[in-house]
Amino acid sequence: MRNIRRGFLAGLLAGLLLAMLNFVTDGTPGRTLPNALHWFGITIADPTISRFAGFFLLIVLGGIAGLIFGIVQREGMITISRALLSGLVLGLVWWLVFSLLLTNIMNHASSPLSLQFGMVLATFPIDLLFGLVLGAIYYQLQGHPAPAEV
Amino acid sequence: MSISSSANDRKQIAVTRAKETGITTPITLSERSITGFALIRIFVGYLWFQQLFWKMPPDFAGLYSYIMRESQHTIIPGYGYILQHTFLSGCTSLHTATGCTLFVPLASGVWIAELIVATSLMFGVFTRFGAILGTVLAAQLYVGLGYSDWYWTYGMLVLLCLALTAIPAGRRLGVDQWLAPRLQAAASSNRLARFASWFA
């Protein structure tokens, strides 16, 4: 049970980071946040409410991803290698599901797997970063950060 | 300098030793401080990452007007001449890279360097290397655009990257957390690992 709680907290924090990264965009702050609503076919006319709803949805989705991460890790301590690697895999799955499949489906693209260089560059590293940070926070929450000499 | 969960114990020992020997007290970063620095590192990396999108390949068109401005307003004598005979060699237009012979290969170098800085800082992979490269790129921007923009804009970017060079911010929420202990362990027997360990 502790691993699930730890995963959920790590997911919420990583989701918060993802939402904050989506807030500091070029142009209007948070202009890409409504994309998260769009994955589920939700449209809110008011742009401010839409951005705030997108911000909170990303945190909630992060929490759910963290729950799954915690369940997969099972009880017991995990190593930093495993935490980071599983985090990167989770980030890849997040990218495949949300940034690729759901985005293409909701935008009526020619194929659910259609790729564009600009879109991949804009989403892939950020989604991987989300997973990596989730894994790293999960490891930190175990309470044994390895000392490192400078 | 060291980062450890038992930071308080170490601080106590360090302070006692310093009192006895008169040596400067070593500074220890707490978990909160280093995690805070890790978050700053991610956002600085994201800053570099976002700037890739207005000068995308294959033509890197967005960069052209900036190189042109740098060649005209640089604060170092002779730097404009270098730009005109490298990036802007053969260019016939003030607004587009028409006729330029070296613009695309050199601009691709700039773009790749910025991608390396962004990846290194966001993921915390060889963070100090990314921060040093970021410092060089930001210093170049300061030299070229210091006159035409608010002069502190690029100065602040230089200082941010310098701060991330000094502090091993990749060792929390980054790949360096995994990389650094392994490189340090191998450093005693391997010269390359010793060299690489400084960048993690």
Count of distinct structural domains of chain A? 1
Estimate what percentage of residues of chain A fall within beta strands.
Answer: under 5%
Overall form of chain A? globular
Low-confidence stretches of chain B: none
Largest sheet of chain B: 2 strands, parallel
Which sequence of SSEs, written as H and E, runs from N to C of chain A? HHHHHE
Low-confidence runs of chain A (pLDDT<50, min 5 residues)? none
Mean pLDDT of chain A: 93
- β-strand percent of chain B reads under 5%
* Helix/strand order of chain B, N-terminal first: EHEHHHHHHHH
What is the total number of structural domains of chain B?
1
Q: Structural class, from helix and strand content of chain A?
A: mainly alpha
Total of helices of chain A: 5
- Tally the beta strands of chain B: 2
Structural account:
The complex is a heterodimer of chains A (150) and B (200). The N and C termini of chain A lie far apart (36 Å). In chain A, helix 4 runs antiparallel to helix 5. Chain A has helices at 2-23, 34-38, 47-73, 80-106, 117-141, and one strand at 148-149. Chain A has one domain. With 150 residues, chain A is an all-alpha fold. The radius of gyration of chain A is 16 Å and the shape is globular. Chain B is mostly helical and 200 residues long. Chain B has one domain (39-197). Chain B contains 9 helices and 2 strands. Chain B has helices at residues 7-21, 31-50, 61-73, 79-84, 103-123, 127-145, 152-166, 176-187, 191-197; strands spanning 2-3, 28-29. Chain B has a two-stranded parallel ribbon. The interface between A and B is medium-sized, with 29 and 33 residues.
Question: What secondary-structure arrangement, pairings included, does this model have?
Answer:
The complex is a heterodimer of chains A (150) and B (200).
Chain A: H1 2-23, H2 34-38, H3 47-73, H4 80-106, H5 117-141, E1 148-149
Chain B: E1 2-3, H1 7-21, E2 28-29, H2 31-50, H3 61-73, H4 79-84, H5 103-123, H6 127-145, H7 152-166, H8 176-187, H9 191-197
Parallel strand pairs in B: 1-2
Helix pairs in contact in B: 2-5, 3-6, 5-6, 6-7, 8-9
